[in-house]
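Example record

One chain of 192 residues, shown exactly as stored in the release files.
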Amino acid sequence: MQKRLILFGLALCSCLSLSACHTAKKAPLHKDDFGNADMFTYSVPGSGKNACEAARRAILSQGYIIAEANESNLKARRKFQSDEETHVEIEFNVVCASNSRGSNSATIFANAVKDRYSLKKSSSSASLGVGGLGSISLPYGESNESLVKVASETMSDPKLYARYFELVERYLDDVNEEPETTMPNAAAEKKP
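Predicted structure tokens for this chain:
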């Protein structure tokens, strides 16, 4: 009888443990709060076009390669090799928007995304069928290596963005001093 009670108690404890594990909620890895956006935005004097030109020059000064660019946004990438088996890419995205009419100011929205890749190796093997014994698998010298993305995250270091916006400010002075160039109207150049 005592043996049955012990077994019943153990079974009950294991059932309760399993049900507690099953109903436990996992905490989210990252909580998104749409609150303070100061880290990712910066207001500058001038037009949105001039803001994006200054942003482009600032990102180029840091060794980024421009992937896409127009008057209101740009996307740039930079690659790093932190060690023999880890590769890192940072993609910087910038959008420039003029503020309300007559304000002669613009807002720059920037964010950087870091992707991390790891070198994965896979070796090849050959199978050999031997009558009476079955098949034997033997490794041979070839191995394939490939980069596999293992992580991707939006960079949230306020100092990174502050340093970037400082660079933008430095280039903004040059851009705002240059006269805005406009394409000549072909129809206006034709003489009657």
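Notes: The beta strands are 41-45, 65-69, 73-83, 86-98, 105-130, 134-154.
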